[in-house]
Amino acid sequence: MRVLEVFATFFYLGLVSFGGGMANLPEMARILVAKGWVTPQQFADGFALGQFVPGPNMLAVVFYGLSAGGLGGALAALAGMFLPGATGALLLVQVWEKMARARWSRALRRTLIPISVGLALSTLLVLAQVGLGGPGSLLLMGMAALLIHRGASPLGVLLVGGGLGLVASWL
Hints:
The chain has two domains: 2-131, no CATH class; 133-171. It has seven helices and no strands.
């Protein structure tokens, strides 16, 4: 029965993922932590793993589903999260030309922009809450952002940051 609960939970999260899965990251964190499937730290770790592996950035749901219900939970979370979006995309492709010309469609797209920005900012706040361990972490995050902005390789910054984290864990 846990597998069905995992599927239903991630199906709901997939349904409310307007703008992509990261848009509902705060809601996902709230639900998964409240259900006791992951701790806030495990949520942050799962998100980091999802960003690290190739593919869609919401592959973290596999980690969360595994934590909630084993291998069956991992598959249920994956199917539940991606089924609504994939179905919606297939349906949208069928009517896109007709809908793109409609006035209401253009108005809706303009309206969704500020909502998407707000959801992105809420995601940033949740990640900062669960991922930053103090002023040192905030400083490292700022330095990484500055280096990438100045043209440093994101992979290089990631590897150096991982190395610094490993060294810091030994101290």
